[in-house]
Amino acid sequence: MTTPSEHPDWTTTGFSTRAIHAGQDPDATTGAVVPPIHQVSTYKQDGVGGLRGGYEYSRSANPTRTALEEALAAAESGGLPSTPDGSPAARGYAFASGLAAEDTLLRAVLRPGDHVIVPDDAYGGTYRLVARVFGPWGVEHTPVDLTDVDAVRAAVRPETKVVWVETPTNPLLGVSDVAALAGVAHEAGALLVVDNTFATPYLQQPLALGADVVVHSTTKYVGGHSDVVGGALVVATGAQLPGGLASPAGGTDVAGAVGFHQNASGAVAGPFDAWLTLRGLKTLAVRMDRHQANAAAVAEFLASHPAVTEVIYPGLATHPGHELAARQMRGFGGMVSFRVGSEAKALDVCARTQVFTLAESLGGVESLIEHPGRMTHGSVAGTALEVPDDLVRLSVGIEDVEDLVADLERALA
Ligand SMILES: *Cc1c(COP(=O)(O)O)cnc(C)c1O
């Protein structure tokens, strides 16, 4: 018999090696190479308080969820220096949905009277949460164009505790400078939070650019197969709560406060959802490579089509954020938006595709088409976040690109 070998330090390996292995050592008892679905609520104690591996009750911790949380933290930790005591540079927390993750984060770091800067084309659900759930609890917000760093600096108030960033944004694919915004937020004593759902940790690593917290709807590219709803937070280990705030659990670090609130509010990912998400994460890099190759071809086709008045894709040299995206990201992603001149024409295109499925959401292997004004962004109609009514959004899948282009050609004819 040979003794089992130690695994390498995953923080020193490449993205896919981390995504496939971190937190996912073969099962100690059976050697199963994939973490089992621990479909269980409670754990036998070896005498009162004698927990095995720290597991007590599955709201507090569950081994399948732990595997996902460690893998997500490792995936987002590229480029981060390891901590002096050898503890992880970031910690992951998995939730029942992206919005559950956002809700838990905002409860952990904000108090009544605080102020949040939000993107003026934020994900509609994020805006609704900030404006209509946290607003009545005394949290104020200002929508700002985050591509304008000076405008963000001008919107900062003494009460500003969070600068919330999406880049690229949904659905207008605006690109903002994470490192510059981190500078503005930290000068103001606020946290920089980046919703990295569109870019994914493969294409963009906000923590290495200075962000304190990364948010994911793992429902999208991380899960990647349109079969699970989930969310995650990845918190830089050193990040401190803004304004000298202390966590109800004691301590002043963001990670500790988020861990406390995850358990205290309980919007956790279930074991099967965590397992599906972990399975998706393993193939994220290969899927993203194909998503963005297909998206680039689709964007080029649309740019040459007479019925299309504007194509919005960060990979096009005509996109105002093209150079920044090229610097800040490993690639330009799989989302493409375009305009066709009128709402009636946009609705018509959405109704006529056959390979692109008319549906909300994004990031799955299958291509989707939608009308943001009437679908995903219906909840922000009449606000500063309203989107143009002739806009069509594509989540370009990993099918054969000739079929995707032919489908759009037919729908636009
Ligand atoms: C979908 C989405 C969310 C919300 O996530 P859910 O999993 O639907 O709760 C947040 N941010 C972005 C950018 C999204 O696309």
Automatic annotation (TrEMBL):
<dbReference type="GO" id="GO:0019346">
    <property type="term" value="P:transsulfuration"/>
</dbReference>
<dbReference type="InterPro" id="IPR000277">
    <property type="entry name" value="Cys/Met-Metab_PyrdxlP-dep_enz"/>
</dbReference>
<dbReference type="GO" id="GO:0005737">
    <property type="term" value="C:cytoplasm"/>
</dbReference>
<dbReference type="GO" id="GO:0030170">
    <property type="term" value="F:pyridoxal phosphate binding"/>
</dbReference>
<dbReference type="GO" id="GO:0019343">
    <property type="term" value="P:cysteine biosynthetic process via cystathionine"/>
</dbReference>
<dbReference type="Pfam" id="PF01053">
    <property type="entry name" value="Cys_Met_Meta_PP"/>
</dbReference>
<dbReference type="GO" id="GO:0003962">
    <property type="term" value="F:cystathionine gamma-synthase activity"/>
</dbReference>
<comment type="similarity">
    <text>Belongs to the trans-sulfuration enzymes family.</text>
</comment>
<dbReference type="InterPro" id="IPR015421">
    <property type="entry name" value="PyrdxlP-dep_Trfase_major"/>
</dbReference>
<protein>
    <recommendedName>
        <fullName>Cystathionine gamma-synthase</fullName>
        <ecNumber>2.5.1.48</ecNumber>
    </recommendedName>
</protein>
<dbReference type="InterPro" id="IPR015422">
    <property type="entry name" value="PyrdxlP-dep_Trfase_small"/>
</dbReference>
<dbReference type="InterPro" id="IPR015424">
    <property type="entry name" value="PyrdxlP-dep_Trfase"/>
</dbReference>
<keyword id="KW-0808">Transferase</keyword>
<dbReference type="GO" id="GO:0004123">
    <property type="term" value="F:cystathionine gamma-lyase activity"/>
</dbReference>
<dbReference type="InterPro" id="IPR054542">
    <property type="entry name" value="Cys_met_metab_PP"/>
</dbReference>
<keyword id="KW-0663">Pyridoxal phosphate</keyword>
<feature type="modified residue" description="N6-(pyridoxal phosphate)lysine">
    <location>
        <position position="220"/>
    </location>
</feature>
